[in-house]
Amino acid sequence: MTFLTWIIFLLLGRATEAGRVLFLPSTLDPVHPQTMAVLADELSRRGHQVSWLEIGPQQSKTVLLKNVTREFWPAQLGDQRLNEIYLHRNHTNYGKLWNAKFTWANEQTTGWLASIKICNSLLSRNQQKFDDLVKKRFETVVVDDLYNPCGLLLVALRKSVYVYWSMTSMRTESAWANQSPTPPSYLPVPGTGFTDDLNFFERTINVASYLRQLYVHQHLIQRRIDALFQKFYPGAPSAFEVERNASINFVNNPPIFDFARPFMPRVNFVGGLHCKKAAPLPKDLEDFIKKGNKFVLLTTGFTAQWTVAPPAIKEAYIKTFQSLPSLQFIWQYNGEELREKPANLLVRPWLPQQDLLGHPKCAAHVSHGGLNSVIESVWHGVPVVGLPLTSRGYDNLLRVTARNAGVMVEKEDFNREGITSAITKVVKDPKFQEEMEIFQDMVTDVPFTELYHAAFWVEFIERHQEVPHARSGADKLNVLQYFLVDVIAFFACIILLTLQILFFAVRGLFRVLSSVFKLAIGQKSTRPMTPGKKRN
């Protein structure tokens, strides 16, 4: 066989392995498309025919390789409040983020309700277009598991294998759908602000939060999704049934990042697949960093809109920078021009975050708690000063501060004293850097990257189409059976029946003995006196 024949054979073999993959990211959170794009590009490099579809009020700014077939289907929210939250990002909630009592606890519920409106808008105007997509051939579909009812509907109608990708850590309802055990006795429910070290009262609150989150998702969200499905496609499976039948589940955090927990074989942790080694910085950034010995990076991602931030918060930041002249500060800031800008401060509306975190002079990362942002800090080994703006950000930062790789600043302490104290503590105390480096080693010391891991599993289900051996028997159980309520009730009945039998047996025995005793006493009292004996 000639060399050319071998080359053709290898190319044909590679072509037969590559398949058609469709990505369906949610457009309500800009981070979701950016994260999924990393895997889409990787699969495209491997020779797959990758398609990318966004459905929403506006297309994301995500950059994809030219080989990726990209489409955008516009669909309106149809609600002024939702437009302010997701489209214009000028809702009053963005101004409340710094309020100590505001955690945006209903952020996820609002997102789901908005996504249902988007899907309804699309199907009302372009159902035929959606039907045509259902008929297209794809070996697998990658679906964002937050705010994506149209993605669920597509895989339900296609009856195809699909990857269900959680852009957060494993949430309560996600774990329930993929049957990963989530004991609320020690696993903190998102939004509670707990670690895995719970006392009695915290466990009580945790159980109540666990039940509440399941109720909200299954009875408030999924019922609305089911109504949407039946409106346009009568007889379609329920949203819960579709979620439970995911072929593979991706979770957007590294395996050792979260608190230790059990999970099913089909669950794969791919968080950090976007992480990369630092590249050289632009000249203006490098020149600024060279002015000092160390610098601190401050970022807020897409969460904070500095244009609506309270003036007191901005002033607290500025005074913090002024009080620490030995440090350089690089701040991701998109608000109005600062009137008083210290010499040790550089501001930009957007920054090459990973390149800065990977710089040897980066001493700390002041983070709002975005999951990707926190993972990047761990991946590059930079201790964190957490200034959480939402309950979700607080939970993400807890994964670092609970390991002593950073400190948390409560919202009540969002002032010059609180922020300055936290930054000083992290920069001057070497234990935070040491603990973060230990955490970094555990996260990065893996036989393959998370990106390779994710690409492998997409190709795995392309080849095998389904992974029945990764499913548990729990899929066939209802709630009562899953929690052994029927078995516990059976044992309780057996115990009660046994106790009742013992009760009646003891009572019967007591009555018999009582009767015998009474009879014996009666016979003794009526016995005649012996003849010949008299009383004194």
UniProtKB/TrEMBL annotation:
Keywords: Glycosyltransferase, Membrane, Signal, Transferase, Transmembrane, Transmembrane helix. It is found in: Membrane. One of its GO terms (molecular function) is glucuronosyltransferase activity. PROSITE patterns: UDPGT (PS00375). It holds the Pfam family UDPGT. The keyword Transferase applies. Its EC number is 2.4.1.17. It is a single-pass membrane protein. It catalyses: glucuronate acceptor + UDP-alpha-D-glucuronate = acceptor beta-D-glucuronoside + UDP + H(+). Its main location: membrane. The keyword Lipid biosynthesis does not apply. InterPro entries: UDP-glycosyltransferase (IPR050271), UDP_glucos_trans (IPR002213), UDP_glycos_trans_CS (IPR035595). It is an enzyme of class 2 (transferase). The chain crosses the membrane at residues 482-506. It comes from the Eukaryota. GO terms for cellular component: membrane. Residues 1-18 form the signal peptide. Belongs to the UDP-glycosyltransferase family. This is glucuronosyltransferase.
